[in-house]
Amino acid sequence: MQDVELISPQLAILDEEPYYHAVGDEVPLFESAWRNRLPVLLKGPTGCGKTRFVEYMAWKLKRPLVTVACHDDLTAADLVGRYLIVGGQTVWMDGPLAAAVRAGAICYLDEVVEARKDTMVVIHPLADSRRVLPIEKRGELVHAPAGFMLVISYNPGYQSVLKELKQSTRQRFVAFEFDYPDAELEAAIVSRETGIGADVAAKLVKFAAMTRNLKGSGLDEGASTRLLVHAGKLIVDGVPPVAACRAAIAQAVTDEPEMLAAVHEMSSSIF
Amino acid sequence: MQDVELISPQLAILDEEPYYHAVGDEVPLFESAWRNRLPVLLKGPTGCGKTRFVEYMAWKLKRPLVTVACHDDLTAADLVGRYLIVGGQTVWMDGPLAAAVRAGAICYLDEVVEARKDTMVVIHPLADSRRVLPIEKRGELVHAPAGFMLVISYNPGYQSVLKELKQSTRQRFVAFEFDYPDAELEAAIVSRETGIGADVAAKLVKFAAMTRNLKGSGLDEGASTRLLVHAGKLIVDGVPPVAACRAAIAQAVTDEPEMLAAVHEMSSSIF
Amino acid sequence: MQDVELISPQLAILDEEPYYHAVGDEVPLFESAWRNRLPVLLKGPTGCGKTRFVEYMAWKLKRPLVTVACHDDLTAADLVGRYLIVGGQTVWMDGPLAAAVRAGAICYLDEVVEARKDTMVVIHPLADSRRVLPIEKRGELVHAPAGFMLVISYNPGYQSVLKELKQSTRQRFVAFEFDYPDAELEAAIVSRETGIGADVAAKLVKFAAMTRNLKGSGLDEGASTRLLVHAGKLIVDGVPPVAACRAAIAQAVTDEPEMLAAVHEMSSSIF
Amino acid sequence: MQDVELISPQLAILDEEPYYHAVGDEVPLFESAWRNRLPVLLKGPTGCGKTRFVEYMAWKLKRPLVTVACHDDLTAADLVGRYLIVGGQTVWMDGPLAAAVRAGAICYLDEVVEARKDTMVVIHPLADSRRVLPIEKRGELVHAPAGFMLVISYNPGYQSVLKELKQSTRQRFVAFEFDYPDAELEAAIVSRETGIGADVAAKLVKFAAMTRNLKGSGLDEGASTRLLVHAGKLIVDGVPPVAACRAAIAQAVTDEPEMLAAVHEMSSSIF
Amino acid sequence: MQDVELISPQLAILDEEPYYHAVGDEVPLFESAWRNRLPVLLKGPTGCGKTRFVEYMAWKLKRPLVTVACHDDLTAADLVGRYLIVGGQTVWMDGPLAAAVRAGAICYLDEVVEARKDTMVVIHPLADSRRVLPIEKRGELVHAPAGFMLVISYNPGYQSVLKELKQSTRQRFVAFEFDYPDAELEAAIVSRETGIGADVAAKLVKFAAMTRNLKGSGLDEGASTRLLVHAGKLIVDGVPPVAACRAAIAQAVTDEPEMLAAVHEMSSSIF
Amino acid sequence: MQDVELISPQLAILDEEPYYHAVGDEVPLFESAWRNRLPVLLKGPTGCGKTRFVEYMAWKLKRPLVTVACHDDLTAADLVGRYLIVGGQTVWMDGPLAAAVRAGAICYLDEVVEARKDTMVVIHPLADSRRVLPIEKRGELVHAPAGFMLVISYNPGYQSVLKELKQSTRQRFVAFEFDYPDAELEAAIVSRETGIGADVAAKLVKFAAMTRNLKGSGLDEGASTRLLVHAGKLIVDGVPPVAACRAAIAQAVTDEPEMLAAVHEMSSSIF
Hints:
The structure is a homohexamer. By secondary structure, chain A is of the alpha/beta class. Chain A has eleven helices and ten strands. In chain A, strands 3-6-9-2-10 form a five-stranded parallel β-sheet, sandwiched between helices. In chain A, strands 1-5-4 form a three-stranded mixed β-sheet. Chain A is elongated, with a radius of gyration of 21 Å. At the A-B interface, strand 3, strand 4, strand 5, helix 9 and helix 10 of A face helix 1, helix 5, helix 6 and strand 10 of B.
């Protein structure tokens, strides 16, 4: 058999420290999991900083980072790789997971429960003591180097029966729960990311807390830190605070007319 | 590996100002979102001018515009691109989203909730601070230039449980709500687009308002501004107003015999 | 990139006037819609003459006609076109919709609600003021010439919740409702198409009216004009009228034994 | 574009008269439909002779016969044809329907409701006055010659809501209902096809009638004429009649233990 | 058109007599069906010897045997054959059914109700007096030689509504019902296949009978003859009888803790 | 036909003894099954050592081991093999099952009920006295050498109606049930795998037992031995025991806030 060329991209290490402010013991725990070659599972609501945390840890551990946003149609082949015909030749192109394993990178599967079940199973041999990735189509068994780490995340608030992590999957991971930062820290983050004054940032955080209290009583989810940053940017750019809160926060969290009115009123009472 | 040729179309900027009449603060808000590199979500009923508004903003910001009408079978590959075999060579053809990112264009995904879930996820990294489009099949990470902007739209009135925007998607966008213009403005628009007299235009707008009041009590949706333009064109062309209203408006909004009769009667009472 | 050959068939104009007898103002309304470049939606039961009407209008307006019978598996690609490998070369073959747009033809999508949702969406940009067909796989935007017209049809009596036209689709069309011609006209049509005597034709029309009264009380649909033509042809060929009515009409509209007996009895009472 | 070779098989006319015994006026009705170029729909239970009737008519009208057994996965492409790569060249291979149209054959689609919906629609233009088969992939419109005839069949007893013929399909056909032949004729048929004596044949027919009376009260369907032929053959070959009836008839119509016992008892009481 | 090479394997006749002990008149009935060119349907529970019986008959009739285990994803193409590209040439590779027809073999479709509906239909023309296999993709009609025989099987106990044999399929077959052999014969079979003593074999058969009595009251199915053979082999190899019964029989028939305990107790009471 | 090259990987035997501590008679039973060429089915909860046991037996029997993690999209072709185009040539690449059969390896299908139904059926001829693997696409019948053994596993606690093993599958296997080791043995295993002291290991096992008692009353599954090993590793690395138990055990087994609190409290009461 003629050799099939293998295409596997060179992955680079982030060269700038991402801004991340720890909210608990997540940094040393992550480092310990990495030293013990254990995979990590991050739980938490949207926009609370999971992705940023993984970027920060990749930078701190000097590992390249490969991020995959999971979805309904993501197959095992999308992660592992596939054969392509290029110029009449068959070449093998590593998928992001295979590339991450070869490079000893951190591979971050975001919103992993959205992926099809076969994706879950393909990570099993990587997520136990074997630490191997079988590439069945190549008849190859890739052993993960020491630096490789698998990180997955999901939002427990959205898990449906159809899309839950099986015990045989989750019992392979060390798991951390994330939540929004406390008020003071969140105001500092919003201020730093937008250049807005401390007082306005505090008001935005207060507004966010009000929406988070509505979770489960009309809202699926409260305003995330990310939405506060959006509102802050619009305000710095000259948009009146109430209009900025309406567009960046209220309209972003709900379509329901009465709930929209209630959330508008909250922002008006603050600004 | 032999080089794979990359096919990415050159996108042009609209050279004529599209006719658009603002109904609120949507123009400065959109500009602020663009300056802050935030993606935008437009909500509103069919035919109220969302598409025209995006065309207008693209012209105003001097950005090329790429519009994609989303549907059930639209996959991530349709947006991002795919390999083709041309003359025995494999070439990569950018999809409309990848082409828009490379060109720093405005990419407008119309009725985005109709698309498959993987489409939603493929826009995530473009719709947060990373502003990147991963093209996994090429192992390429395209960084969006400053001019690029992502705009999506949907009609909240039609969202079903199966087709709603997840919080992890919607909490990435600055959101605006659109509605029909007020009566005076709408009559001016109909008049300008059809050449019909102000009095007939006013009557058409009055008729439309009557149908919009029936929304939820027999009609799924009232007559849009677009339908008034259709009726106006037929009238200018010599079709009797009542016949024009029946064909362009009543028959276009419902099939239900009793509702058709009621709507016919309304137009007869006006003309 | 090597040039991909484009295969787009030459479409011809009907050279013989199709037999069509107007039942209302549908001819001038259609002409006005065509002059105003508005798309048209035809509603009505099976076999009442919608297809013949479109053929007639195409002949009258001197436009080529492209007819597509829609079905569950009709995809956007079937309408727009696809790449084929021919003799080792990749060629692009226009689908019927793309061919119609390029030729300035009338494109008639029959029973459009049967098609998959993506078909609906692909016609959106053709069915508003843009009048363009984006061929995403070619990165091409085809502008419809003045002569092009889009016509769609469906039978409102059969629409299910799963297969209804979305408001965002239907509010792009000028709509006409069709029904069976009145008794005198229908008898004339049957007579002309079969050569049968006026008296027998009148009896067939009377029989049809009886079956149409059963619609909703045992029959899904009454006998169409087409079935009367079938029966007429068999009678002219020597088949006894009652046997012709049984085979061409009764057995064609129902399988239900009691309903069959009732319908048989009706024809026996007439002939 | 290089010429694509067209592969369309030469169809032969049956050279031996199939054995068929008419049970009503189905032969002259079929001939009249054929002379008038009308398509035919045959209804009736399994094994009552529909297929044999079509073979007989094809022989009588001196037309080649193409039979297609329809099923869940039969697509329009399976009927119409597809491109194949042969020796590096693309050739078009006509499907059985296209081949039948070109040859002016009788095309018999057996159990047509089993086919996918797109199959139904592909026959529409062949089953009205147009008598054309559009081959969209070739951009070809094949006009049916005078000899061509479309025949479809199904068993109304098995139609489910999901698998019924739409009115827009069935109202294109002249329809005949088939049933088992009367006792005397059926005994003659069994005798002729197996060489069994008239008395045993009569007993088998009597037994069949008993099972047919159980239809709807424990049996989905009674024993068909075909099963009597099977039993007859086994008996002629030396199998005891009761054993032959059990294997060829009782076990063939049901699995239900009590019903099996009842049917066994019937045959024991006769032989 | 260039010739497409046809790949059809040479099938061999079994050269050793398989061990089979008849339980009724199934051998002469099968021979009579074969002489009369009638297809056969075998019904019965798992592991009762249907496969072995077919092997035995193939050997007795000196016919090659082709066995296909049917499943959910078995398509008509899997049975009939498909085109492959080999060394740049298109070759046709017969599927097992086509190969069996050409070779005049016995083709045994095991658990036929598991297959997709199209598989059922593809065998229809082979299972009536036509005895032909249409290979639509080749435009070929293969006539079955005299020696060819179609045999299908299923387990009526497991048939669900979704997976039942249609009357139009089953009324083409001569049908036999299989059951476990009687106690004495079954003990002889177990003894012969494992070398175990007659007394232990008798105990195993007694144990099996107890589990078969539980069918429908806690067990889906009792222990098959095959499981007794498994237990016998382990015992001969030195495993204690109770342990052998637990692993080879009890754990093989159920997972339910209470039922497992009950079945364990049965075996303990015997050994 | 040109020869198609066959690619079948050389499989190696494990050269290091995997650590495994027997909990019952599973080792001699497995050896007896192997000597008698009977396939084996392992049942048990996640993380209790099934995979390690198979590795150990493969080492002990000096057989190569091929492990396949089954999933929803695993097809028969993934197991058996497929044709690839390499350098313009068609080559056949054995799947893991075919490779294992040729090499006389142990083939372990982990979580077999997750695979598609066709996978189940493809192993049937390997799992009875025939011991053959039909490779239909090659027209090849591979006979398993004496050393080959098929092992499958699943967790009965998770079987749903949709994903249960059919009797016709399970009645081909000798079956063992696995459970967690007893307390003393489990502490020894944790200690050996992590280097943690015996007292901490005993506390972890005590904690695990408490969570296992919650199975069915709030937890889907208790903590597996694997999770104890995770916690032990973090503790040895300096993470405080309560934090290690929270991340490695509590967060890994549940997302439910009250259950998390209860489990946290358990670990606090122990450490």
